[in-house]
Automatic annotation (TrEMBL):
It comes from Sphingomonas aerolata. Residues 42-156 form the GspL cytoplasmic actin-ATPase-like domain. Keywords: Cell inner membrane, Cell membrane, Membrane, Protein transport, Transmembrane, Transmembrane helix, Transport. Pfam families: GspL_C, T2SSL. This is Type II secretion system protein L (GspL). The chain crosses the membrane at residues 216-237. Its main location: membrane. The lineage of its organism: Bacteria, Pseudomonadati, Pseudomonadota, Alphaproteobacteria, Sphingomonadales. SUPFAM superfamilies: Actin-like ATPase domain (SSF53067). Belongs to the GSP L family. InterPro entries: ATPase_NBD (IPR043129), GspL_cyto_dom (IPR024230), GspL_pp_dom (IPR025691), T2SS_protein-GspL (IPR007812).
Amino acid sequence: MTTLLFLPSGVTGFRWMRIADQRIVAQGEGIPTADDGGDLNADHGVIAVAPAEAVTLHWAELPSRSAAQATAAARLLAAEASAAPLGELHVAVGDEGQGDRPIGVVGIEAMQGWLRMLAAAGVDPVAMLPAPMLLPRPDEGYVRAALAGDTVVRGTSTGFADEPGLTALVTGDTPPVAVEPAALEAALAAAVATWPLDLRQGMFARRRRFALDWALIRRLAVLSGLILAVTLAITLVRIAKYSFGADMIEAQTEQVARSGLPRGETVNDAGRQLGERLSRVRGPGLGFSTTTATIFAVVQATPGSEITALDFQPNGTVRLGVAVEREALATDLRSALERAGFAVQAGVFQAAAGRVSGEFTITAGRAGGSEGA
Protein backbone atom coordinates (compact mmCIF):
# COMPACT_ATOMS: atom_id res chain seq x y z
CA MET A 1 0.00 0.00 0.00
CA THR A 2 1.28 3.45 -0.97
CA THR A 3 0.05 6.88 0.07
CA LEU A 4 0.11 9.82 -2.34
CA LEU A 5 0.44 13.03 -0.31
CA PHE A 6 -0.44 16.08 -2.41
CA LEU A 7 1.45 19.19 -1.34
CA PRO A 8 -0.44 22.42 -0.62
CA SER A 9 -1.29 24.49 -3.65
CA GLY A 10 -2.64 28.03 -3.32
CA VAL A 11 -5.33 28.02 -0.66
CA THR A 12 -5.61 24.25 -0.70
CA GLY A 13 -3.82 22.33 2.05
CA PHE A 14 -2.52 18.80 2.22
CA ARG A 15 -4.59 16.10 0.54
CA TRP A 16 -3.90 12.39 0.38
CA MET A 17 -4.85 9.35 -1.62
CA ARG A 18 -4.08 5.73 -0.74
CA ILE A 19 -3.33 3.18 -3.50
CA ALA A 20 -3.63 -0.56 -2.89
CA ASP A 21 -4.18 -3.46 -5.28
CA GLN A 22 -3.97 -1.02 -8.22
CA ARG A 23 -6.95 1.01 -7.09
CA ILE A 24 -7.79 3.99 -4.87
CA VAL A 25 -8.87 2.62 -1.48
CA ALA A 26 -9.10 5.86 0.51
CA GLN A 27 -8.55 9.60 0.23
CA GLY A 28 -8.95 12.68 2.33
CA GLU A 29 -7.59 16.06 3.39
CA GLY A 30 -4.74 16.96 5.75
CA ILE A 31 -2.05 14.54 6.94
CA PRO A 32 -3.37 10.96 7.19
CA THR A 33 -3.09 9.24 10.56
CA ALA A 34 -3.16 5.63 11.74
CA ASP A 35 -6.92 5.97 12.10
CA ASP A 36 -7.10 6.49 8.33
CA GLY A 37 -5.91 2.94 7.74
CA GLY A 38 -2.13 2.81 7.71
CA ASP A 39 1.23 4.07 8.91
CA LEU A 40 2.74 6.77 6.69
CA ASN A 41 6.30 5.56 7.16
CA ALA A 42 5.66 1.82 6.92
CA ASP A 43 6.58 -0.39 3.98
CA HIS A 44 6.39 1.73 0.80
CA GLY A 45 5.80 4.90 2.81
CA VAL A 46 4.66 8.13 1.23
CA ILE A 47 5.14 9.60 -2.24
CA ALA A 48 4.78 13.37 -2.23
CA VAL A 49 3.07 14.99 -5.23
CA ALA A 50 4.31 18.44 -6.26
CA PRO A 51 1.73 20.91 -7.59
CA ALA A 52 1.58 21.00 -11.36
CA GLU A 53 1.93 24.79 -11.53
CA ALA A 54 5.21 24.70 -9.56
CA VAL A 55 7.08 22.29 -11.83
CA THR A 56 8.00 22.87 -15.46
CA LEU A 57 8.17 19.69 -17.53
CA HIS A 58 10.21 19.06 -20.67
CA TRP A 59 10.93 15.95 -22.72
CA ALA A 60 14.20 15.35 -24.58
CA GLU A 61 16.50 12.59 -25.76
CA LEU A 62 19.28 12.31 -23.16
CA PRO A 63 22.29 10.02 -22.64
CA SER A 64 21.29 6.79 -20.92
CA ARG A 65 24.72 5.45 -19.98
CA SER A 66 25.31 7.75 -17.03
CA ALA A 67 22.88 9.57 -14.73
CA ALA A 68 25.43 12.36 -14.31
CA GLN A 69 25.67 12.87 -18.09
CA ALA A 70 21.88 12.89 -18.45
CA THR A 71 21.52 15.45 -15.64
CA ALA A 72 24.22 17.68 -17.13
CA ALA A 73 22.52 17.64 -20.52
CA ALA A 74 19.14 18.35 -18.89
CA ARG A 75 20.57 21.36 -17.03
CA LEU A 76 21.81 22.82 -20.32
CA LEU A 77 18.31 22.46 -21.81
CA ALA A 78 16.73 23.97 -18.68
CA ALA A 79 19.12 26.94 -18.82
CA GLU A 80 18.03 27.69 -22.40
CA ALA A 81 14.31 27.34 -21.68
CA SER A 82 14.15 29.11 -18.30
CA ALA A 83 14.37 32.82 -17.49
CA ALA A 84 15.58 32.13 -13.93
CA PRO A 85 19.30 31.67 -13.26
CA LEU A 86 20.37 28.03 -13.43
CA GLY A 87 21.84 28.25 -9.92
CA GLU A 88 18.33 28.80 -8.52
CA LEU A 89 16.84 25.78 -10.29
CA HIS A 90 16.71 22.11 -9.39
CA VAL A 91 16.72 19.83 -12.45
CA ALA A 92 15.62 16.18 -12.24
CA VAL A 93 15.64 13.54 -14.98
CA GLY A 94 13.19 10.64 -15.21
CA ASP A 95 12.62 7.68 -17.48
CA GLU A 96 9.39 6.38 -18.95
CA GLY A 97 11.03 3.63 -21.00
CA GLN A 98 10.67 5.52 -24.29
CA GLY A 99 13.06 7.40 -26.55
CA ASP A 100 12.70 10.82 -24.94
CA ARG A 101 12.98 11.28 -21.18
CA PRO A 102 11.03 13.63 -18.89
CA ILE A 103 12.85 16.55 -17.25
CA GLY A 104 11.44 18.35 -14.22
CA VAL A 105 12.55 21.90 -13.40
CA VAL A 106 11.60 23.46 -10.06
CA GLY A 107 13.00 26.21 -7.89
CA ILE A 108 15.46 25.16 -5.22
CA GLU A 109 13.64 27.30 -2.63
CA ALA A 110 10.38 25.53 -3.46
CA MET A 111 11.96 22.11 -2.95
CA GLN A 112 13.50 23.20 0.35
CA GLY A 113 10.17 24.63 1.53
CA TRP A 114 8.28 21.45 0.65
CA LEU A 115 10.77 19.19 2.44
CA ARG A 116 10.75 21.43 5.54
CA MET A 117 6.96 21.36 5.53
CA LEU A 118 6.92 17.57 5.26
CA ALA A 119 9.55 17.15 7.99
CA ALA A 120 7.48 19.33 10.31
CA ALA A 121 4.55 17.00 9.66
CA GLY A 122 6.75 13.97 10.46
CA VAL A 123 6.83 12.72 6.89
CA ASP A 124 9.93 11.66 4.93
CA PRO A 125 8.62 10.84 1.42
CA VAL A 126 10.37 8.09 -0.51
CA ALA A 127 9.86 10.09 -3.73
CA MET A 128 8.34 13.29 -5.02
CA LEU A 129 6.47 13.22 -8.34
CA PRO A 130 5.08 16.16 -10.33
CA ALA A 131 1.29 15.91 -10.48
CA PRO A 132 1.07 15.64 -14.31
CA MET A 133 3.32 12.54 -14.22
CA LEU A 134 0.50 10.65 -12.46
CA LEU A 135 -1.60 10.76 -15.62
CA PRO A 136 -1.11 8.30 -18.49
CA ARG A 137 0.95 9.66 -21.36
CA PRO A 138 -1.30 9.90 -24.44
CA ASP A 139 -0.17 8.69 -27.83
CA GLU A 140 -1.42 11.98 -29.25
CA GLY A 141 -3.26 15.09 -28.08
CA TYR A 142 -3.95 15.74 -24.40
CA VAL A 143 -5.67 14.09 -21.45
CA ARG A 144 -7.27 15.72 -18.39
CA ALA A 145 -8.06 14.36 -14.92
CA ALA A 146 -8.91 15.65 -11.45
CA LEU A 147 -6.38 14.67 -8.77
CA ALA A 148 -7.34 15.38 -5.17
CA GLY A 149 -9.39 18.41 -6.17
CA ASP A 150 -6.97 19.87 -8.76
CA THR A 151 -7.33 19.34 -12.49
CA VAL A 152 -4.19 18.42 -14.42
CA VAL A 153 -3.53 18.23 -18.15
CA ARG A 154 -0.91 16.11 -19.84
CA GLY A 155 0.23 15.80 -23.45
CA THR A 156 2.82 13.73 -25.26
CA SER A 157 5.59 16.18 -24.29
CA THR A 158 4.05 18.54 -21.75
CA GLY A 159 2.19 18.61 -18.46
CA PHE A 160 0.61 21.50 -16.57
CA ALA A 161 -2.22 22.61 -14.31
CA ASP A 162 -5.55 23.12 -15.98
CA GLU A 163 -6.33 26.83 -15.93
CA PRO A 164 -9.09 28.58 -17.85
CA GLY A 165 -7.69 30.40 -20.86
CA LEU A 166 -4.16 29.05 -20.50
CA THR A 167 -5.10 25.46 -21.35
CA ALA A 168 -6.79 26.49 -24.57
CA LEU A 169 -3.71 28.46 -25.63
CA VAL A 170 -1.55 25.37 -25.17
CA THR A 171 -3.86 22.72 -26.59
CA GLY A 172 -5.19 24.82 -29.47
CA ASP A 173 -7.66 22.94 -31.59
CA THR A 174 -7.06 19.70 -29.67
CA PRO A 175 -9.16 19.79 -26.50
CA PRO A 176 -8.03 17.46 -23.67
CA VAL A 177 -9.82 14.15 -23.29
CA ALA A 178 -11.03 13.18 -19.82
CA VAL A 179 -9.34 10.10 -18.38
CA GLU A 180 -11.72 7.32 -17.40
CA PRO A 181 -11.70 6.41 -13.66
CA ALA A 182 -10.39 2.87 -14.33
CA ALA A 183 -7.61 4.19 -16.59
CA LEU A 184 -6.74 6.82 -13.97
CA GLU A 185 -6.45 4.23 -11.22
CA ALA A 186 -4.22 2.09 -13.46
CA ALA A 187 -2.04 5.12 -14.25
CA LEU A 188 -1.74 5.99 -10.54
CA ALA A 189 -0.75 2.42 -9.68
CA ALA A 190 1.89 2.41 -12.45
CA ALA A 191 3.27 5.80 -11.35
CA VAL A 192 3.71 4.81 -7.69
CA ALA A 193 5.38 1.58 -8.80
CA THR A 194 7.87 2.97 -11.34
CA TRP A 195 8.34 6.66 -10.35
CA PRO A 196 8.61 8.06 -13.90
CA LEU A 197 10.13 11.33 -12.62
CA ASP A 198 11.36 11.61 -9.03
CA LEU A 199 12.27 15.16 -7.99
CA ARG A 200 14.25 13.83 -5.02
CA GLN A 201 17.57 13.69 -6.81
CA GLY A 202 20.97 15.24 -6.30
CA MET A 203 21.02 17.49 -3.23
CA PHE A 204 17.43 16.52 -2.40
CA ALA A 205 17.94 12.75 -2.60
CA ARG A 206 16.51 10.84 0.32
CA ARG A 207 19.09 9.86 2.87
CA ARG A 208 19.14 6.20 3.67
CA ARG A 209 18.82 5.41 7.32
CA PHE A 210 21.37 2.98 8.62
CA ALA A 211 19.85 0.36 10.87
CA LEU A 212 21.56 -2.62 12.41
CA ASP A 213 19.91 -5.95 11.69
CA TRP A 214 20.65 -7.63 15.02
CA ALA A 215 19.09 -10.90 13.93
CA LEU A 216 21.42 -11.01 10.92
CA ILE A 217 24.38 -10.04 13.11
CA ARG A 218 23.57 -12.87 15.53
CA ARG A 219 23.31 -15.36 12.67
CA LEU A 220 26.63 -14.17 11.26
CA ALA A 221 28.23 -14.43 14.70
CA VAL A 222 26.95 -18.00 15.10
CA LEU A 223 28.17 -18.93 11.63
CA SER A 224 31.57 -17.35 12.34
CA GLY A 225 31.80 -19.29 15.59
CA LEU A 226 30.92 -22.53 13.84
CA ILE A 227 33.51 -21.87 11.12
CA LEU A 228 36.18 -21.16 13.75
CA ALA A 229 35.19 -24.29 15.70
CA VAL A 230 35.34 -26.48 12.59
CA THR A 231 38.70 -24.96 11.59
CA LEU A 232 40.08 -25.57 15.08
CA ALA A 233 38.74 -29.13 15.07
CA ILE A 234 40.38 -29.82 11.70
CA THR A 235 43.68 -28.44 12.99
CA LEU A 236 43.49 -30.53 16.19
CA VAL A 237 42.66 -33.69 14.22
CA ARG A 238 45.58 -33.02 11.89
CA ILE A 239 47.96 -32.45 14.83
CA ALA A 240 46.73 -35.63 16.52
CA LYS A 241 47.15 -37.56 13.26
CA TYR A 242 50.72 -36.33 12.82
CA SER A 243 51.49 -37.06 16.48
CA PHE A 244 50.10 -40.61 16.28
CA GLY A 245 51.98 -41.18 13.03
CA ALA A 246 55.24 -39.93 14.55
CA ASP A 247 54.75 -42.15 17.62
CA MET A 248 54.03 -45.14 15.38
CA ILE A 249 57.14 -44.54 13.28
CA GLU A 250 59.24 -44.08 16.40
CA ALA A 251 57.88 -47.32 17.86
CA GLN A 252 58.55 -49.20 14.63
CA THR A 253 62.08 -47.78 14.46
CA GLU A 254 62.79 -48.81 18.04
CA GLN A 255 61.39 -52.28 17.35
CA VAL A 256 63.67 -52.67 14.32
CA ALA A 257 66.62 -51.38 16.33
CA ARG A 258 65.88 -53.83 19.17
CA SER A 259 65.91 -56.71 16.69
CA GLY A 260 69.52 -55.85 15.80
CA LEU A 261 70.78 -55.80 19.42
CA PRO A 262 72.06 -58.86 21.27
CA ARG A 263 69.35 -60.87 23.00
CA GLY A 264 68.90 -59.87 26.63
CA GLU A 265 70.71 -56.51 26.32
CA THR A 266 69.07 -53.72 28.30
CA VAL A 267 67.77 -51.12 25.88
CA ASN A 268 68.12 -47.46 26.87
CA ASP A 269 68.63 -45.80 23.49
CA ALA A 270 68.05 -48.33 20.74
CA GLY A 271 69.38 -46.10 17.96
CA ARG A 272 72.64 -45.26 19.75
CA GLN A 273 73.20 -48.83 20.95
CA LEU A 274 72.54 -50.19 17.44
CA GLY A 275 75.09 -47.74 16.04
CA GLU A 276 77.67 -48.83 18.61
CA ARG A 277 77.10 -52.50 17.81
CA LEU A 278 77.37 -51.81 14.10
CA SER A 279 80.66 -50.05 14.70
CA ARG A 280 81.94 -53.02 16.69
CA VAL A 281 80.80 -55.52 14.06
CA ARG A 282 82.09 -53.52 11.16
CA GLY A 283 85.35 -52.71 12.87
CA PRO A 284 87.19 -49.43 13.14
CA GLY A 285 88.35 -47.41 10.20
CA LEU A 286 86.51 -48.41 7.04
CA GLY A 287 85.53 -51.68 8.68
CA PHE A 288 86.86 -55.17 8.20
CA SER A 289 84.64 -56.15 5.26
CA THR A 290 85.18 -53.01 3.22
CA THR A 291 88.92 -52.90 3.87
CA THR A 292 89.67 -56.54 3.10
CA ALA A 293 87.39 -56.61 0.05
CA THR A 294 89.19 -53.60 -1.42
CA ILE A 295 92.65 -55.07 -0.69
CA PHE A 296 91.76 -58.41 -2.28
CA ALA A 297 90.39 -56.62 -5.36
CA VAL A 298 93.62 -54.61 -5.74
CA VAL A 299 95.86 -57.66 -5.33
CA GLN A 300 93.74 -59.65 -7.76
CA ALA A 301 94.07 -56.85 -10.32
CA THR A 302 97.88 -56.85 -10.02
CA PRO A 303 99.26 -59.87 -12.00
CA GLY A 304 102.08 -61.78 -10.32
CA SER A 305 101.11 -60.77 -6.77
CA GLU A 306 99.54 -62.78 -3.95
CA ILE A 307 98.63 -62.36 -0.29
CA THR A 308 100.66 -64.37 2.17
CA ALA A 309 99.25 -62.92 5.42
CA LEU A 310 96.54 -60.52 6.57
CA ASP A 311 96.15 -59.16 10.08
CA PHE A 312 93.28 -56.70 10.88
CA GLN A 313 94.29 -54.72 13.97
CA PRO A 314 91.82 -53.38 16.61
CA ASN A 315 92.53 -49.81 15.46
CA GLY A 316 91.56 -50.58 11.84
CA THR A 317 95.13 -50.97 10.56
CA VAL A 318 95.88 -53.95 8.29
CA ARG A 319 99.24 -55.69 8.18
CA LEU A 320 99.36 -57.27 4.76
CA GLY A 321 102.00 -59.81 3.76
CA VAL A 322 102.49 -60.15 -0.01
CA ALA A 323 104.69 -62.01 -2.43
CA VAL A 324 105.43 -60.80 -5.94
CA GLU A 325 107.41 -62.12 -8.88
CA ARG A 326 109.79 -59.13 -8.99
CA GLU A 327 110.56 -56.03 -6.95
CA ALA A 328 108.84 -53.61 -9.37
CA LEU A 329 105.51 -55.35 -8.76
CA ALA A 330 105.73 -54.45 -5.06
CA THR A 331 105.89 -50.79 -6.02
CA ASP A 332 102.98 -51.24 -8.45
CA LEU A 333 100.93 -52.96 -5.76
CA ARG A 334 101.60 -50.17 -3.28
CA SER A 335 100.57 -47.54 -5.83
CA ALA A 336 97.36 -49.43 -6.60
CA LEU A 337 96.50 -49.60 -2.88
CA GLU A 338 97.08 -45.87 -2.52
CA ARG A 339 94.86 -45.16 -5.50
CA ALA A 340 92.18 -47.23 -3.78
CA GLY A 341 92.23 -44.66 -0.95
CA PHE A 342 94.60 -46.20 1.58
CA ALA A 343 97.72 -44.87 3.25
CA VAL A 344 100.42 -47.52 2.75
CA GLN A 345 103.73 -47.97 4.51
CA ALA A 346 106.08 -50.60 3.05
CA GLY A 347 108.36 -52.78 5.14
CA VAL A 348 111.54 -54.59 4.06
CA PHE A 349 111.12 -56.84 1.04
CA GLN A 350 113.47 -59.85 0.56
CA ALA A 351 114.04 -62.14 -2.42
CA ALA A 352 113.93 -65.90 -1.84
CA ALA A 353 113.17 -68.89 -4.06
CA GLY A 354 112.53 -66.62 -7.07
CA ARG A 355 109.92 -64.53 -5.23
CA VAL A 356 110.05 -61.13 -3.52
CA SER A 357 108.09 -61.02 -0.27
CA GLY A 358 107.47 -58.37 2.33
CA GLU A 359 104.84 -56.55 4.36
CA PHE A 360 102.61 -53.47 3.90
CA THR A 361 100.99 -51.53 6.78
CA ILE A 362 97.67 -50.21 5.46
CA THR A 363 95.46 -47.57 7.10
CA ALA A 364 92.47 -45.64 5.91
CA GLY A 365 93.71 -42.58 3.99
CA ARG A 366 92.42 -39.88 1.65
CA ALA A 367 90.59 -41.18 -1.40
CA GLY A 368 92.88 -41.10 -4.35
CA GLY A 369 95.85 -39.94 -2.18
CA SER A 370 99.29 -41.53 -2.02
CA GLU A 371 101.88 -41.90 0.66
CA GLY A 372 105.58 -42.43 0.17
CA ALA A 373 107.18 -45.75 1.24
